[in-house]
TrEMBL record:
Belongs to the isochorismatase family. This is Nicotinamidase. Signal peptide: none annotated. The gene is pncA. Transmembrane segments: none annotated.
Length: 211
């Protein structure tokens, strides 16, 4: 019952324990996305996942900046960086994808945030806006032109990925109820405004299931 042909892909962003209740950087109600994703994933022949994948000494962790607390911001060479609680450390349970995700057809897992000195919210481009993850080239090589995005968190990794998808020439639509947000200092409203301005579409999973 694949609804979408080979020119479309579902991009599942950071559906990891680290962003679920009990994780290092818990997103409220984050685990509610799992059953929604499991309902929509069978519509897609192509599925790609991302995994936030930090070394323990990563620059985005408040713990690596003495005297700083989580959710403060610092200036880095590439711009402003939010300091996060330690999350998704490489090889830990916190970095694992949720066990209940059922996407057996998934074809690629893009790991990001593994350079110690650069964060990467986006699945496409690291925060220095120069270092590519290789995802755009992979999708283009496979003839994929349309992306549907879901995962965590709406206002960080999903939004940055959707914006970069548009910048790289892809059609991009966020599946709203298959995402949850952090919403730090108005970040969610800003993310939706930025996505709208960039031509990112929005759809609900129920509408998607009726396509
Ligand atoms: C994310 C903050 C830090 C995300 C990842 O997946 O949205 N947010 N690392
Ligand atoms: Zn991270």
């Amino acid at each position: 019952m694949n609804t979408f042909d080979d020119s479309a892909a579902l991009l599942i962003v950071d559906a990891q324990y680290g962003f679920m209740p009990g994780g290092g950087l818990p997103v409220a109600d984050g685990d509610a996305i799992v059953p929604v994703i499991n309902r929509i994933a069978p519509l897609f022949a192509n599925v790609v996942l991302t995994q936030d994948w930090h070394p323990v000494d990563h620059i985005s962790f408040a713990a690596n900046h003495p005297g700083r607390a989580p959710f403060e911001t610092i200036a880095l060479p590439y711009g402003e960086q939010v300091l996060w609680p330690t999350h998704c450390v490489q090889g830990t349970r916190d970095a694992a994808l949720h066990d209940d995700l059922r996407v057996p057809q998934a074809q690629l897992i893009i790991r990001k945030g593994f350079h110690r000195d650069v964060d990467s919210y986006s699945a496409f481009m690291e925060a220095d806006r120069r270092t590519s993850t290789g995802l755009a080239a992979y999708l283009k090589a496979r003839g994929i032109v349309r992306l549907y995005l879901c995962g965590l968190a709406t206002d960080y990794c999903v939004a940055w990925s959707a914006l970069d998808a548009r910048a790289a020439g892809f059609d991009a639509t966020v599946i709203e109820d298959a995402c949850r947000a952090i919403d730090l200092n108005g970040s969610l409203a800003r993310a939706w405004a930025d996505m709208a301005a960039a031509g990112v579409g929005r759809i609900g999973s129920a509408a998607l299931l009726n396509t």
